[in-house]
Amino acid sequence: MPQIELPYIADSALTGLAIAYTPSELIADESLTKSYVDSPEFKYRYYDKGQFLTTADTEIGEYGEPDETEYKYTEKHNGTGIYAHMTKLSVRHLEMTTQEKDKEAKRVMFSKNHLKLAGEVRLAQMLRDANNYEGNAVTLNSSNDFNTANATPIRFVQECADKMFKKPNTMIISRAGASFLRSCPSVVQMYKGNAIQDGLVPVEFLKECFDVENILIGGGRINTNKRGQTLALSYVWGNDMILAYIDPSADLDCGVTFGQRVVYKDYNVQTFLDAKPGAAGVKYYKSVEEYKDVITCPDCGYLIKRFFA
To answer: Rounded to whole angstroms, what are the CA distances from 305 to 130, 221, 225?
Structure first.
């Protein structure tokens, strides 16, 4: 079969510039274990976790043979999505500047921002949905959240963590959530002494308090109103807390991890020309990526909804 001539150019230079630029407050790309597939259709193994905790006698003596366990699993099928955003510059405009690549790079960075924010919203919607945790979720209210007078957030989080299949090594919260925890009176007292309830503790101290290796703080914000209406900003990760065990060495066939980002094609920038508009035509820049976020082990996660008002 003859190779199809593509109507666009894969621009490696602009792709490299865009990859080097990462929106600092977006965390979706680093939240889950990343696995690569060679087809947009993929399958992964969903194990009964109890098998990993059941063992037989391993003593074999001088001539005995070791026990061999065949783990049973359910095979699940899924497919990657295609996500893209496009922007443009007139060729006339590009010809008027001597810093063409700078101008193009800024446009591509703007486009990448839009693409990545949309991906952040998709992942947050999935991870903030209690239905995806198979019972490992709790919703607090004004009478029992971490803002009440007798709240014990550290103990509460540890009790939730103890219900998980694996001890969590990651916490995901919004920037507003991080600010709340860093200034929480009981946490400040642990850091500065019982006599002091006001202040701001370092994020590193939060890791120690809640016994996690990594705290991902999502600062992304989204306008919840439609275009043309009054601006209404909200944090993408809201006032929820996600506890997760993330194993970067796991893949679709083996290993236990809370969730995976299954990648078919990494982020790339495509460019193409349209001679019809304007005096000299328009150059388009399309940011594209193909992946799917999936929760592969709900027992390795815990959702605490509305931990602060």
So the answer is: 8, 18, 22
